[in-house]
Amino acid sequence: MNGEIVLVALIVIGLAARSPIITTAACLLLIVKLVHLQRYLPAIERRGLELGLLFLTLAVLSPFASGKMQAKDVIAAFSGWTGWVALAGGALAAYLNSRGLELLKVDPQMIVGLVIGSIIGIVFLRGIPVGPLMAAGLTAMLIKIVQLIVGK
Question: Which family does it belong to (predicted)?
């Protein structure tokens, strides 16, 4: 019963944070539990991130497949300094996301703090939720900085 309470809390937090991905994920997992399909949870846990990243990559690359973006657009994007800064920003974001993925694999309960932190950022800083993976990546970076300062 404890797992259901946590999932309902995540649904409420996701709704409050205007995060449809967290809300939907928690709803789907709650349904899996309530209709007694728990035998699929280990497979979801083992392959869910890979499947999610696959769909994210498909979405990012689809403009190339549809013809909306072509080689000339890629070349034009790097004709100015902003394109090169965007390249660096994308590389840094991908690196941070990988650190966030590692952090969530090691410490999955951290998602609650990330979601609550997102709510605080939305309410008090007028922020926009970007997703738990990027938030985890920034958290991993902040943890490393604090460890360097404290000496642990």
Answer: Belongs to the UPF0756 family.
> What is the C-alpha to C-alpha distance for residues 121 and 114, in angstroms, rounded to an integer?
10
Q: Is residue 27 part of a domain?
A: no
Quick check: 123 pLDDT over 80? no
Q: Is residue 68 part of a domain?
A: no
Domain membership of residue 57 (yes or no) is: no
Predicted pLDDT at 59 = 92
* Residue 95 reports pLDDT greater than 80: yes
The total domain count for the chain is: 1
- pLDDT(141) > 90: yes
How much of the chain is helix, strand and coil, in % rounded to 5?
A: 85, 0, 15
Question: Tell me, what amino acid is at 26?
Answer: A
Q: Could you tell me the residue range of the domain that residue 130 belongs to?
A: 81-152
Residue 113 belongs to some domain of the structure: yes
Q: Nearest Cα to 90, choosing from 98, 103, 151, 25?
A: 98
- What CA–CA distance (Å, rounded) separates 28 from 145? 36
d(CA 9, CA 4): 9
